[in-house]
């Protein structure tokens, strides 16, 4: 299955409708959507498209309010919303302490509020949070990864869990490097990339060509589509394309190709 990953402000009802018409299964909304989960217009504009958050930040979104929003969406659009949650980045959160336990506490609160395990997923990179995603949610939403990470994640998650692998696609080298530099300033992504075999020298700003090429795909449609399919071969249920340039044109180019 092929999905789309975009920052929430970029996804209008009109774009959601176009994404559905192009045959994509789901759109994942980044940018720490608020607890109000104001995605009703996107669901109302489409008929079958799944909408998911990737992710709601546990430090900024009250779990009770998030659960209330989930139930509102589930009542109006049954089975079409997935609540993705995560601990974000310590560089962006003053209260960032013991993120693993904070995730556990947030999941406990969602349990108490009746949010079903199968309707939520976790932003997970390292083994411990992947195990938590397996045990306490439908699965994992890894971001800024490679097919090698997807393979390891599937081994940890087991055969049945949801695994949505996001991957970026760009037209220009400048767009690719600018995006990667943003994430090389965030320690959790850097730690995960070290686990994948990248060296400190490669991960130092501005990032080596090998790092940029691994994290942002460029080239002709057939070549990039084949690279995206590597995530599916490695065990992902879905690969979510994040276009960095010419969003609609890129999505049209890859529709039905993965």
Automatic annotation (TrEMBL):
GO molecular function, one term: oxidoreductase activity, acting on paired donors, with incorporation or reduction of molecular oxygen
Domain Luciferase-like: 12-113
Transmembrane segments: none
UniProt superkingdom: Bacteria
Any one annotated GO CC term: cytosol
UniProt cross-references to NCBIfam families, sorted A to Z: F420_MSMEG_4141 (TIGR03620)
Stated name of the protein: Probable F420-dependent oxidoreductase, MSMEG_4141 family
Lineage of source species: Bacteria, Bacillati, Actinomycetota, Actinomycetes, Pseudonocardiales
């Amino acid at each position: 299955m092929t999905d789309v990953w975009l920052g929430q402000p970029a996804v209008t009802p009109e774009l959601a409708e176009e994404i559905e018409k192009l045959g994509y299964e789901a759109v994942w909304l980044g940018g720490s959507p608020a607890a109000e989960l104001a995605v009703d217009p996107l669901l109302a504009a489409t008929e079958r498209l799944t909408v998911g958050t990737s992710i709601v930040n546990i430090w900024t979104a009250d779990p009770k309010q998030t659960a209330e929003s989930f139930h509102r969406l589930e009542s109006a659009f049954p089975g079409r919303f997935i609540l993705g949650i995560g601990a974000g980045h310590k560089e962006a959160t003053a209260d960032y302490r013991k993120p693993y336990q904070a995730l556990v506490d947030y999941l406990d609160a969602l349990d108490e509020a009746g949010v079903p395990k199968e309707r939520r997923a976790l932003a997970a990179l390292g083994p411990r949070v992947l195990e938590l995603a397996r045990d306490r949610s439908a699965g994992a939403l890894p971001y800024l990864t490679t097919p090698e990470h997807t393979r390891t994640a599937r081994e940890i998650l087991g055969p049945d869990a949801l695994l949505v692998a996001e991957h970026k696609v760009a037209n220009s080298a400048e767009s690719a490097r600018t995006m990667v530099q943003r994430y090389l300033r965030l320690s959790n992504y850097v730690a995960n990339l070290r686990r994948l075999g990248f060296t400190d020298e490669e991960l130092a700003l501005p990032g080596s060509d090998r790092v940029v090429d691994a994290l942002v795909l460029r080239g002709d449609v057939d070549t990039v589509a084949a690279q995206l399919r590597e995530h599916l071969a490695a065990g992902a249920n879905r690969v979510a394309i994040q276009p960095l340039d010419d969003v609609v044109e890129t999505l049209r180019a890859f529709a039905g190709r993965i």
